[in-house]
Design brief:
- It is built from eight helices and no strands.
- It folds into two domains: 156 residues, no CATH class; 31 residues.
- Helix 1 crosses helix 2 and helix 1 crosses helix 6.
- The termini are far apart.
Amino acid sequence: MKKEDLLKQIADAAYNVGFGAKKHFATYDMVEKAPGLIAFSSMAVGIFGLVIDILSTKSLSAAFLVLGIAGLYIERYNPDKDKYAEKGSDLTQLFNELKILYYKVKSSSSADLSQGGEELKRILDCYYKSCIHKQILFSDWYAHHKFFWQHQIDWIDEQKHFKFWRDKVPLSLTIAALFFLAVGVCAVWLVIK
């Protein structure tokens, strides 16, 4: 195996492991923080709705009822939330091992890279055993933010050459934003017409 090929494989693995770690942490964060945020905002709007008429409309009440239902959905993950944090930490450790391996292989002058290949295989085996496959809705979007905007990934970018729209912004978020923009434009057009 050539050095460039092994470096590319390590970077690919690091992307998967690092994003997986951030996805586990995203699920943990959402389960930990979202119910409190939903409760606080619902109570605040309810209190201000007593004195500000626009905050006591049926549509706003319906929106907060939907948020309450979302809180019930999120609550289903609560018993396992500590597992998500633990697995996120385990995956972060594997991510850091991949970074060390990457720089070790990159600086190696040896033609024999079999030890690096074996180390990569060991790390990937640990990765496959460490993942929790059931993640909360929208954890991908939050994980994208955590991985691309909060994490140091320049060394992975050396091999993968991330693009803004292709990699750093989730496709489903782009589609959702375009959908809501189209709905908004149609609503404004109907009001003007």
